[in-house]
Amino acid sequence: MNKNTLFIGFMLFAIFFGAGNLIFPPNLGLESGQFFWPSILAFVITGIGLPLMGVMVGALDKQGYIGSINKIHPVFSVVFLVSIYLTIGPLFAIPRTASTSFEMTVTPIIHSSSPVWLFVFSVIYFLIVLYLCLNPGKIVDRIGAILTPLLLITIIAMIIKGFVDFGGSTQNTANPEVYTSVLGGFSKGFTEGYLTMDAIAAIAFSMIVVNAIKATGIKHANDI
């Protein structure tokens, strides 16, 4: 494994790890109780497996998903892809990333969820995002080499904090209103894995990943 492979792997982790990945798994673990394993298995299938398959499928066509979906019908391709980008963009995913970041970082400090503070935070947040995205050629270095290690450190710190605060008082019984059987737990995990929206985002991210790999000098489709 060379440095570029490691950084691209880090980049994949960072761009897919969004607000949903931070919200749903802990809640799933807390409420699933004795149905934890079928629930988390289903979550992994839709929250990790489908996005990974999406990236691989997107890399098979030189034009990415545009080329693949155009084979169905050009009009369908436009409508479908516009819907996808609106869903993972301004309608759902983008606002969720800012609001979740605000609730987890600023709110505990200022003890307020004021819309004014949320607006100020969102402006700063998206200016930083804009800076990171202005030069696609440096996206691997900026995200894979800088942001991902910081993200991993933060996640590890949160896990340790969770064990310290709740390690001795976790509940072993599932929430009876949601988890009633193994199949019910699997269904809930399957749904929540999909609600991370990573499977949908893979359609857009696949070309980002492919272009990032090409920027390292790898051009042949088989190597990608």
Automatic annotation (TrEMBL):
Gene for this chain: brnQ
User: What protein is this chain from?
Assistant: Branched-chain amino acid transport system carrier protein
Q: Which GO terms describe its cellular component?
A: plasma membrane
One GO term under biological process is: isoleucine transport
- Which InterPro entries does this one have? Brnchd-chn_aa_trnsp_Livcs
The entry's keywords:
Amino-acid transport, Cell membrane, Membrane, Transmembrane, Transmembrane helix, Transport
Query: What GO MF annotations does this protein's record show?
Result: L-isoleucine transmembrane transporter activity; L-leucine transmembrane transporter activity; L-valine transmembrane transporter activity
Organism this protein belongs to: Staphylococcus pseudintermedius
Pfam hit, one? Branch_AA_trans
Q: Which residues cross the membrane?
A: 7-24, 36-60, 72-94, 114-134, 146-164, 193-213
Q: What is its main location?
A: membrane
